[in-house]
Amino acid sequence: MKMESSTSSNKSIKEGKAEICLTTEKVFYNPVQEFNRDLSIAVLSIFSEVYRNEKLEKEKKKKDGDGDSSEIAFSILEALSATGLRSIRYAKEIPNVTKIIANDLSEQAVETIKANIVHNQVENLIDINHDDACMLMYKHKFPSKRFSAIDLDPYGGPSIFLDSAVQSVQDGGLLLVTATDMAILAGNPPETCYYKYGAVSLKTKSCHEMALRILLQCIESHANRYSRYIVPLLSISADFYVRVFVKVYSGAIHCKKTTSKLSMAYQCVGCDNITLQPLGGFKPNPSERNPYQTKAFLPTVPPVGEYCVHCNQRHHLGGPIWSAPIHDETFVSRVLTHVQENPHLFGTAKRIQGVLSMVREELQNVPLYHTLDKLFGRVHLETMPMLVMRSAIMNAGHKVSYSHASKLSIKTTAPAQLIWDIIRTWAKTHPAKPSKLEADPVSRHILTQEIKSEVDLSVRADANPISRRDGQLRFQFNPTPNWGPGSRAAVNVGDDKMSKAKRNQNKHIKQREKRQHSQPSDDDARKKKNTDVN
Fold first, then answer.
1. Is the CB of residue 27 less than 8 Å from the CB of residue 108?
2. Res 6: pLDDT
């Protein structure tokens, strides 16, 4: 992203193949989201091919012959366009696009979009619309009017747009959804998360993946009401937001499988271990002639006792969360290859390659993860090197990977018992201070339990994943001060960038100092008293 400014009131911004001009501060633009836009373009470039091929196959089956790919439309709705930058980049950089609708409720935003579309000469592909995003999508809920892809990138939470979005996307179409209200999704106010997303969030070290899984279950819940369901292609936690890319299909019979994709989460308040309880499952149905026919069943509960077996503490209950895979490895590989072959198209190409490489390495059937700092901090031990922990898990015959959502993450098929046995083995040569264990009965209880597993701490070469070994940009450092979602309806570029955030820094300390300066000193008070007496 490059920013040029001709005057204080007229900013010119170049990103990708687009150039936009902003003449007002009341239209939202955030340069932090360049990674979001680049990744969306890479995903849509591959998805447009997948979508057209699927439609072409259906046409061939209907006509019992060759279909015509030129007749297949690929339309995109950007429901909350603001500056129009994203829509313009979609028009210029995504192949096979036939139509884009750039919508916004703000009149000033619509005027800005019009000017930028003309400036970029994409009037033939982009239609401008001034309407409430939900009402616009409801008008396109009929199959003949639906969009091939809908992009929802609101300021804050997307939940109010999901009901209309799942109805107005084509069968096999793509929903791109961003949520920036991470405090809610990450467990700070669980009651707020429930009324917004229909799930109770938990405050845990794996909160960023928990946020992704809460958002996915919320989208699935809205889709199920209309006999539709979702298939996640890619789910990303980055910076201050989460972003999911899901295909939407119709089919009531598949909606019945939703309970097997969702789980409640039991979180131990002592050791933070999380145990998942699926809402439902499927088993072979011997009464049917078809041996592949399955029958739904309700699982027995609870999966945990009254007290945690590892630390003897109680549990919190959260969820439901999406417990099925959150990525499609084949699709992710295609997007990664596309970025690797065309790095000049993306300003954040290195970061996309690093993140997608990690996503491809993630264990797909293992929801949530541990973190080294939490595990060893819980028992007051010196933190074990990551490669030693990964090697110990692999030496025990289990799989392990990172999560793209956390630098110190451990995503593994190993049971929690093995993880604590590894930590107890490490404690023999790196003991905790006795004073800390005396003051913390939970840590003492964990470390004094018997080691039940055979633990081998010898380091192995294959414990170091390829993305780490190649030195790829896996975790982005904050490149500028006040890195965050920015202020609503403000252009966050230039010298006054994030001015509100700067103004609010140390706000309470400044107010306290101001009150102290305004109060008279003891000498001033005595002088005033003497003056009043005289």
1. yes
2. 44
Domain-located, residue 494: no
Q: Looking at residue 10, what is its pLDDT?
A: 67
CATH number at residue 393: 3.30.56.70
Q: What is d(CA 60, CA 420) in angstroms, rounded to the nearest whole number? A: 56
- Domain of 431 in residue numbering reads as 366-469
- Residue 442 is assigned to a structural domain of this protein: yes
- Residue 426 inside a domain? The answer is yes
User: 28: pLDDT confidence band, cut at 50, 70 and 90?
Assistant: low
What letter does residue 308 receive in the DSSP assignment?
-
Residue 201, C-beta contacts closer than 8 angstroms, at least 6 positions apart: 184, 185, 186, 187, 188, 190, 193, 207, 210, 211, 214, 318
pLDDT tens string 243-301: 999 999 999 999 999 999 999 999 999 999 999 999 999 888 777 666 667 888 999 98
Count of other CB atoms within 10 angstroms of residue 317? 13
Q: What's the Cα-to-Cα distance from 417 to each of 202, 381, 426, 517, rounded to whole Å?
A: 22, 18, 14, 58
**512 pLDDT above the threshold of 80:** no
Name the residue among 300, 304, 329, 328 with its Cα closest to residue 314: 304
Number of domain units in the chain: 1
Burial grade of 292 (CB within 10 A; 0-12, 13-18, 19 or more) = exposed
**Confidence bin at 32 (pLDDT 50/70/90):** confident
Query: What integer pLDDT is reported at residue 59 of this predicted model?
Result: 83
Q: Give the separation between CA 389 and CA 456, rounded to whole angstroms.
A: 10
- Domain-embedded: residue 461: yes
Q: At what angle do helices 207-224 and 159-167 cross, to 10 degrees?
A: 40
Report how far Cα 26 is from the mean position of its chain's Cα atoms. 27
* Tokens found for residue 494: 């230039």
